[in-house]
Each structure stands twice: as C-alpha cells, then as structure tokens.
C-alpha cells in the first residue's frame, strides 16, 4: 500500500504521518515512513541543494526528479515488494503543483516526466492537507528557500493541489488541516484504500 501526503508547507503533513504511523504500528502493520526530497544519502544531498541554495527553476525540477527516481528504485519499491505500507511526505504531485501551477512549467510535460522518473508508480491514495497559506505561514518553524516564497506562490500551490484532487477524485482525499491531528488520523483511516 502506497499512501502519499501533500499540501502547502506548514499544513501538518509530518505531524500527521508520525501519528498515523504510530497507530498503524500499534495495530501490527509494517510501515515505512519516508519523504521527498531527503530520503537516503542521495536524497539528503539533493535536499540540501534544493532547500538551502538558489537554483534556477529548470535545475530545481530536474533535481526533484532525480531524487524521486532514486527514492522509488531504492526505497519505495523494495518496501512495497516486502508488503510494507509506505507513507510518503510529498511525491510526484508536488512537482506538478510547485513546478507547474506555481512556477509555470507545462503540466502535461511534468506528468510525463514524473511517470518516467517513477516507472509509472502512482500512489494508492493521496491525502491533501488543505490549509489557507496565511495560516500555514504561522505554523512553519523552518525557513528554507521554498518557505520564503510569496503568499501568492503558496496560494498557487494550494490551488494546484485542489485542482489535482478534482481531476482524480478516486485517488485524492482533501482534508481540512485546521482540525486536530487525531481528527485527521481518524479521517485518513476512514478513507484508507482497500
């Protein structure tokens, strides 16, 4: 089972994933928690390049795709083959939204590049934590390059995730990120893929 979590920075994805993972472990499930970018040695190096340095939009795109390729091949697919539940903080939809909706790259091209980078691996379910960007800004504790983008940029990100959710309602579930983490976990488990 491959489940991804998306949303604006500061929506609470990491907190939700940690709490959900604990519940799933307690029920006896084998769970792998991972993230993009930043999983594994390669991912850590790419994360540093992406979040701490200024890179041009094209380089940003290709770094995300390179990280995703390595991540799928070396982490996600092996875990799925073992029968693990994989909970991933960000995945290909983030590239479509950040580089497409927010940065202006062609969305169809981005979807094709994602399919190539992942070998067509699509999540069984994607949960979008929806939160007004101004509220998300109050929650953020870090200050990487993407966090420091304008409110207009973050609004485009939010709108992009909601647009993707409307396009694929069988895969996406939109959650109101303003509620408690426990409430979000309950909603996730009630919408769990079968």
Keywords, separated by commas or semicolons:
single chain, Rossmann fold, about 190 residues, 5-stranded parallel β-sheet, 8 helices, alpha/beta, 5 strands
Can you put this structure into words, describing what you see?
This protein is α/β, with parallel strands linked by helices and 194 residues long. The chain has one domain: Rossmann fold (3-Layer(aba) Sandwich). The chain is built from 8 helices and 5 strands. The protein has a 5-stranded parallel sheet, sandwiched between helices. Helix 2 runs antiparallel to helix 3, helix 4 runs antiparallel to helix 5 and helix 4 packs across helix 7. The longest helix has 26 residues. The protein is globular. The termini are close together.
Strand percent estimate = 5-15%
Which series of helices and strands comes N to C? Answer: EHEHHEHHEHHEH
Uncertain spans: none
Number of strands: 5
Cα end-to-end separation: 9 Å
**Count the helices. How many?**
8
* Total of domains: 1
Task: Write a brief structural summary.
The chain has one domain: P-loop containing nucleotide triphosphate hydrolases (Rossmann fold, 3-Layer(aba) Sandwich), CATH 3.40.50.300.
């Amino acid at each position: 089972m491959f489940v991804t979590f998306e949303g604006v920075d500061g929506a609470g994805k990491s907190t939700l994933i940690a709490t959900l993972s604990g519940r799933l472990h307690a029920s006896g499930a084998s769970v792998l928690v991972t993230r993009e970018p930043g999983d594994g040695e390669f991912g850590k190096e790419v994360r540093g390049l992406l979040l701490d340095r200024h890179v041009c939009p094209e380089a940003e795109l290709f770094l995300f795709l390179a990280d995703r390729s390595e991540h799928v091949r070396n982490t996600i697919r092996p875990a799925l083959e073992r029968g693990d539940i994989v909970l991933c903080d960000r995945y290909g939809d983030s590239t479509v939204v950040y580089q497409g909706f927010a940065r202006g790259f062609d969305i169809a091209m981005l979807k094709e590049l994602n399919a190539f980078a992942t070998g067509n691996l699509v999540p069984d379910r994607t949960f979008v934590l929806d939160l007004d960007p101004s509220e998300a800004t109050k929650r953020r504790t870090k200050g990487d390059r993407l966090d420091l983008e304008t409110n207009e940029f973050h609004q485009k990100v939010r709108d992009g995730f909601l647009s993707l959710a409307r396009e694929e309602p069988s895969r996406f579930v939109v959650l109101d990120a303003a509620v408690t983490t426990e409430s979000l976990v309950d909603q996730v488990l009630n919408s769990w893929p079968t």
